[in-house]
Amino acid sequence: MAMTAAQEAAFKAASGNVEPNLLHLLCLGLLIAFLFFWAAWAIVDVYSGWTNQRLKEGAMGRAVVRSVLLLVVSIWMFCS
Length: 80
Known about the structure:
Layout: H1 5-15, H2 20-51, H3 57-78
């Protein structure tokens, strides 16, 4: 849904003359970067537990599948 001219002018005035599309892209970029950082951290954490033999092999596979699924669904939902 597009904003009217009055809504866009009010948004620019309140945000310090920032374009709505630019702010939208910035928020999407931050979300995706955070999700990739979280997924990498989760996989490294599970891998270190697996190498120390505190986790079974199945836990490693499930963590990778869950992380990849989270990234794919989030990108599909928010970036399409």
